[in-house]
Amino acid sequence: MVAKMSSGSSAYGALSYNQEKVDKEKAEVLWANRMIEPKNGEWDISCCMRSFEPYLASNQRTEKPVLHISLNPDPKDKLTNVQLSDMAQEYMQKMGYGDQPYIVYKHEDIQRRHIHIVTLRIDENGKKIDHNFEHRRSMEVCRELEQKYKLIQAEKQQHREGLPLKPVDYREGDVKRQIANVIRPVARTYHFLSLNEYKALLSIYRIGVEEVRGEVNGKPYKGLTYSALNDKGEKVGNPINASSFGKTVGYEALEKRFEKSAELMKAKGLKERSKNIIASVLKLHPTQPGFERELAKNNISALFRTNSEGRIYGATFIDHQEKAVFNGSRLGKEFSANVFNQLFNPREPIVQSLPQHTNENEAFKLAFSGKGFMLGSLFGLLSVGSSPSDYEDEAVKHAKKKQKKKQNKL
């Protein structure tokens, strides 16, 4: 089972999304917790808003107090309404929202049954409910519920469904609409500083974007085209001009987005969360599959670009909570592609230069402090089966060679 979580400022918007499904008889209310029940027994938006309004009125400073969750079992899982309702209540209890007002809807508008839950992130006093490591905890709760209800366990490819938006599937048809449903909100809400970062972001939704240059009436022209991608990252079908989707996803709009993103990232310190999580996860999971899996639990996607020989030459991180995209080296030199290549491909050269006049004891201390070595270099040294004296000697030898070269140049 995969859980999707999104926060927002409008309770009305989240409720109306579900009410529209109910009105079309493609959804129904399964459960309501601490909600004012309607006299006629029929739930509607105004009834739900009456339950939420006292909480929202006391909101202190939370910008996005509304939480919209969907729980998505595998299509092969056959669950009754009672089981779906019980599962939703257990999920909310384990996530710390058991005493909140919330309403549970069952949706059947696609090929599988799934449930949506609308609730609030603030308590009756207007204080924000603790949401630290919320996405990681959500995945852990899903694993517990899978075991209890004997559900099909979510495979790696299904975790893609946990992304804030639905990836494009060219086999479903109407590719233009699918692409539009992703690129419009992505261009509006995510922060990125370059076209390459934008490309990396869209690639996880199976969308490719390319720059087009030319001349129109003698004037230089820059534009973009969008394409659907298959599971191998290959283009499928004909590219679609950005103009078909509107100005907000065109070249000029993106250039403005780059500038605005740079200001916001700096003002709000958006990269700090990503840096801290990536560094802590890397220490505990120094293998690529484990590293990527643990980052996903924290709602961060890791993308590594490799050449034909398997060497990592690019690293990009996408923080879906902060809605920010970072080239690895921009987060810091310890997150550069070279570091990850050394860590995940230990056969590559791994020795990093040390400061001048470094003796054996200092080299050993630097290796463990992380001040003299980049993190990937340290893990690379440890991964080849060397003893402390092995990599201490290697580090000192390398430092002496560097010193000798400098002396010869003088």
Description:
- This protein has 4 domains: 2-160, BirA Bifunctional Protein, domain 2; 170-268, no CATH class; 271-342, no CATH class; 360-409, no CATH class.
- It is an alpha+beta fold and 410 residues long.
- It is built from 14 helices and 11 strands.
- Residues 156-162 and 348-396 have low confidence and may be disordered.
**Count of runs of 4 or more consecutive helical residues:** 14
Query: What is the H-and-E element order?
Result: EHEHEHEEHHHEEEHHHEEEHHHHH
Tell me the total number of β-strands: 11
Roughly what fraction of the amino acids lie in strands? Answer: 15-25%
- Count up the domains: 4
Intertermini distance: 65 Å
CATH architecture of the largest domain: 2-Layer Sandwich
Unreliable sequence segments = 156-162, 348-396
Q: What is the mean predicted local confidence, pLDDT?
A: 82
CATH topology of the largest domain: BirA Bifunctional Protein, domain 2
In spatial order, strands of the major sheet run 1-3-5-4-2
Radius of gyration: 25 Å
CATH class of the largest domain: Alpha Beta
Describe the global form.
globular
Largest sheet: 5 strands, antiparallel
Helix fraction bin: 40-55%
Structural class: alpha+beta
Give a quick precis of the structure.
With 410 residues, the protein is α+β, with helices and mostly antiparallel strands.
